[in-house]
Amino acid sequence: MASYLDNDIKYLPGVGEARAKLLGVELGIRTIGDMLHYFPFRWIDRTRFYRIADVSEENDETFVQIRARVLGKQLIGVGRGQRLSVAVGDASGSTELVWFRGVKWIEKRIEPGREYVFFGRPHFYRGEFSMVHPEMEGVDGAGDRPAGVLQAVYGTTEKLTGIHLGTKGIGGLVAAAWQAAQGSIVETLPEYLIGEQGLMGRREALFNIHFPQSPALLKAAEQRLKFEELFGIQLDILSKRSVRLTRENGFVFPKVGEFFNAFWSEKLPFELTGAQKKVIKEIRADTVSGRQMNRLLQGDVGSGKTLVALVAMLLAADNGFQSCMMAPTEILARQHFASISRMVEGLGVRVGILTGASRAAERREVLEAAAAGEVDILIGTHALIEDRVQFANLGLVVIDEQHRFGVEQRARLWAKNSRPPHILVMTATPIPRTLAMTLYGDLEVSVIDELPPGRQPIKTYHKRDGDRLAVWGFLRREIAKGRQVYVVYPLIKESEKMDYKDLYDGFESITRDFPRPDYQVIAVHGKMKPEDKQLAMQEFKERRAQIMVATSVIEVGVDVPNATVMVIESAERFGLSQLHQLRGRVGRGGDQSYCVLMSGDKLSRDARQRLAAMVETNDGFELAELDMRLRGTGDLAGTQQSGMAFDLHIADLGRDQQIVELTRRVAGAILDADPMLETARNALVRALRERYTPLAPKDFSQIS
Ligand code: ADP
Ligand code: MG
User: E strands of 3-63, at which residues?
Assistant: First the structure.
């Protein structure tokens, strides 16, 4: 059914060919409906005024609004470099406003002694705040206040800003789209659901998302639109899932045979934790069900996931199936190969390894063995997904640290059999359960929430630069006990040059404070050649150095149980998940381990919260939840947009977990009662599900 909303955006007044083209390329806006569904990413409360003295870096405000009197104005410089500096003040203090563009125009209009409202992004320099190019309104000049009490802010790009489509320009187009198209907006959720869930109607929601009439109405509008988006996704995921569960094409591993039994009684070096046993039971149940297993295993660093994977692979071997296990790095694959070979020694299980570095002869031999069914467990890197790797009867695929693999790579591994092998994906990135099920589509989730006995919780401290002497003293005492130390510097893309300078400066000052011959300090960073990196790591592992200075690129899997102290410099620049991952590099032996978070004195509210949380808890799940609440999923380690199964326009899986859970429940109940969504009352629900299907991830549609 053609709708006015489907009309090309170029027909909207104020757009035209050129702008339409750029809107499409830059923001994916092609129709008038797209424009209406281009949601603001924040709203500014224009009812709130700050006192100048209260504007502080620690409040983390992106925008502030002040009411201030002009104290003086001054043109500085000449020609193109000219700028206008305006001093303004209120009863609490004064500040400087600066214009680089439109200088003459503003200079003429701004009157000393008069009061204005200024609105803009605060900049801080040595604790003083100023604003560049603030918006400005005469206090008594009525009529130029925005219509809603909250003003929408839209994302835009440099190119669009160049053709006067900054956030204000986009807002103007949205308003035009609303004027033209409001009559064409139809309801997409069934009446009964709107009633049950107390949701706002679609048209009212679209109006209030762009032009909020009150904070409460904005909230209701957001709730409605997020509900719709997440509900559509859950319908899609749950429908796929029920298809998979009714399709009885999974391999069955009925036998607990000699490999498993011999390993269990003769080889198992320790008692399994309760959590490990629970997960093994879950995997057992999956692999006898006749359905294909698709399971995500989450467990903090050191929780013993490898052993669980090994047990599953032995069960496969007992039933005549091959397994493969894919690790993200060469080092990790070799480590797995060594430890698994050792653990199954003498059992007659054939274990092979294949990586990019395998020599040609070795590679040929392994490939032949895999294709002939003469290897039971094949361990490797992404070399395993190459097309020439063929299996005789692959029954189980284990993927370690899955977030390092892209969706495409996973899909290729899945597709190695005509019947899909069982899949066990393992990750140390803690993601709350519902979120994991949503992010990764149709997966069951297992959690190892218990560490092997005897591990002591890591003690974490937050220290400022002023405490450095005391921290160094502490390092000396630990080193005197024979322990080793990591000192990590942040490496953040945008300012790489500066970061490396931090690392080099840090390395220099540490070698000064910890001089030879008493101390050996080594540095490891991403710009080193792999061989040199490997060499330095080996040196540290063999205790020939006491301190390793590194960037945050310390490899996953660095395992030096004797290292007990992790010092993280400029810790305020790291996200919580990253801090937690780094902290996991210590606390791997029986000795008490420590993590010291160094930061500057001035901290944003956000940074203060993060560091306090690190000091308070060692629980990766708790930290991940907080991280997502603070920063949204965009920054969540391992869930880069590319790995995600769909695009979200308004919901955020981190911040909106409650709605994720709600929509999962609601969608589940509807599908239980009406699996094919055939009833008249669910006609709209079915349309909604169909709308989300094209966005389904490639890998999951291939296996179902
Ligand atoms: P991760 O979950 O990080 O992959 P690993 O599987 O590498 O953890 O296990 C970390 C260490 O703990 C290994 O040295 C492993 O042998 C040991 N381990 C695993 N399970 C247990 C257990 N139940 N009791 C004691 N040690 C265990
Ligand atoms: Mg591991």
Answer: 42-45
Mean pLDDT for 638-651 is 56
306 Cβ below 6 A of ligand 1: yes
User: Which pTM value belongs to this model?
Assistant: 0.67
Instruction: Encode burial over 246-274: b for 16+ CB neighbours within 10 A, e otherwise.
Output: eeeebbebeeeeebbebbeeeeeeeebbe
* Residues in contact with 447: Cβ distance below 8 Å, sequence separation at least 6, in sequence order: 275, 279, 297, 298, 299, 433
Beta strands in 105-235 (DSSP E): 115-120, 122-125, 128-132, 135-138, 150-153
How far, in Å, from the CA of 280 to the mean position of ligand 2? 16
Which residue's CA is the closest to the ligand 1 atom numbered 5? 304
**Helix, coil or strand: residue 299:** strand
Question: In this structure, which residue's CA is closest to atom 17 in ligand 1?
Answer: 304
**Distant-in-sequence, close-in-space partners of 219: CB < 8 Å, separation ≥ 6:** none
Whether the pLDDT of residue 142 is over 50: the answer is no
**Sign of the alpha-carbon dihedral angle for 362, 367, 368, 370:** positive
Confidence (pLDDT) at 497? 66
Identity of the amino acid at 274: G
Residue-wise pLDDT for 144-203, tens only, equals 444 567 888 898 888 898 888 988 899 999 999 999 999 999 999 999 999 999 999 999
> Which residues, 6+ apart, have CB-to-CB distance to 386 below 8 Å?
none
pLDDT, residue 146, reads 41
According to the model, what pLDDT value does residue 162 have?
86
Q: Is 434 in the pocket of ligand 1 (CB under 6 A)?
A: no
Mean pLDDT across the chain: 85
Query: Strand pairing partners for 115?
Result: 69
- Indicate which residue's Cα is closest to atom 15 of ligand 1: 304
* Ligand 1 in reach of 303 Cβ (< 6 A): yes
Nearest ligand, CA 584:
1
Q: How far is the CA of 302 from the centre of ligand 1 (A)?
A: 5
Bridge partners (DSSP) listed for residue 486? 548, 566
Q: Residue 14 is which amino acid?
A: G
Mutate to test the pocket of ligand 1, among 267, 303, 307 (most ligand atoms within 8 A of CB): 307
Strands 135-138 and 115-120, by their bridges, are antiparallel
Our answer on whether the CB atom of 138 is closer than 6 Å to any ligand 1 atom is: no
**Which ligand 1 atom lies nearest to the CA of residue 304?**
6
The finding on whether 452 has its CB within 6 A of some atom of ligand 1 is yes
On the 0-12 / 13-18 / 19+ scale of CB atoms within 10 A, 700 is buried
Tokens of 101: 């563009």
Answer whether residue 104 shows pLDDT above 90.
no
The ligand placed nearest to the CA atom of residue 272 is 1
H or E segment at 597? strand 594-599
Atom of ligand 1 nearest to the CA of 306: 6
Mapped onto helix, strand or coil, the DSSP state of residue 447 is: strand
Ligand 1 atom 25 nearest Cα: 452
Query: Distance, CA 112 to ligand 1 centroid (Å)?
Result: 71
pLDDT 10s digits, 367-376: 999 999 999 9
Average confidence (pLDDT) over 385-404: 84
Identify the CA nearest to 297 among candidates 288, 286, 289: 286
Q: Which domains does the chain have, with CATH numbers?
A: 48-148 (2.40.50.140), 258-448 (3.40.50.300), 459-617 (3.40.50.300)
Sheet of 83-90: strands edge to edge?
Answer: 122-125, 128-132, 93-99, 83-90, 64-76, 115-120, 135-138
For residues 165 and 171, what is the distance between their CA atoms, to the nearest angstrom? 9
> What is the best residue among 303, 326, 335 to mutate for testing ligand 1's pocket, by most ligand atoms within 8 Å of CB?
303
